[in-house]
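Go through this pair.

…
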Amino acid sequence: MSTVTSMNRGDAFIVFWRERLECALRAVVGPVAGFALFVLVWQVVAMRIPEIPTPGVTWRAAVELFSDPFYDNGPNDKGIGWNLLASLQRVAIGFGLAALIGIPVGFAIGRYAAVRAMFSPIVSLLRPVSPLAWLPLGLLLFKAANPAAIWAIFICSIWPMIINTAVGVSRVPQDYLNVARVLNLSEWKVTTKVLLPAVLPYMLTGVRLSIGTAWLVIVAAEMLTGGTGIGFWLWDEWNNLKVEHIVIAIFVIGIVGLLLETLLVALARRFTYTEE
C-alpha cells in the first residue's frame, strides 16, 4: 500500500513539474520565435534596400553607442543617456501635473451634475485636438522650448485621466451613495471610502492611456523644438545620415515606453484600500 502511495506521489510530482515546464516553454518559445521572425524579415528587407542597416550592423552600432551613453561634448553633442533622461524628466513633470489636476477634475465631473454639464462639452471639444497643435501656443506662452514641450505633455495626458475618472465615478452604484447618506458621511469620507476604491480601475486605465500618449508626444515635440531629448537626438542622427542610430532610437523609445507603462501599473496596483 505504501509502495503504491509513493508511486502515486511520484507520478503526481512528475506531472506537476512537467506542466510547469510546458507552461514556461510556451511563455518563452512564442516571444523568441516572434522576435526571430522579425529579425529574419528585417535582414531580408535590409538585403533588398541597402540604405537600411542590417541587424548585425545595428547591433554593433548599439554596442558602441551604449559603451559611453553619458558623454557630454557640449549642448548639441550629448550621449543618448542624457537625451533619454531629459525626455523622461519632461514626461514626469507634464504627466504629474496632469494627474494632479485631471483626476480631481474627473471626480468632480462624475460626482456633480452641474459640473458635468459645464465641463463635458469643453472636454469633448478639446480632447480630439492633436497634442502637437498645442505646441505653438506653448511656445507663445512660455517663450522657451522646454516648458512648451512639458505643456504639450500636460495637455495630451490630462484628457484620458479626466474622462476615465469621470466615467468611473458615474458608474458607482447608487446604493453605495445611499448608504453613505444614511450614515451621514462627509464628502471627504464618501470620496475616500466609497468612490475611490470603486473608481480605481478606471483611474488606472486613464493613467495607462496617458503615459503611453505622453511618451509618444514627447518624441514628436522634441523633434520640433530641438535642444536635448530622445526626439531631438533621433532627428539629429537623421540629419547626420546615421540610419542605424535611428533604428536604435526606435527600439529605445519602444522599450522605455513599455517599461513606463508596466512600472506605473505595477506601482498603482500596490496601493490597496484598507478601511480604518
Q: What stands out?
A: DSSP finds ten helices and no strands in the chain. Residues 9-52 form one domain. Confidence is low (pLDDT under 50) at residues 272-276.
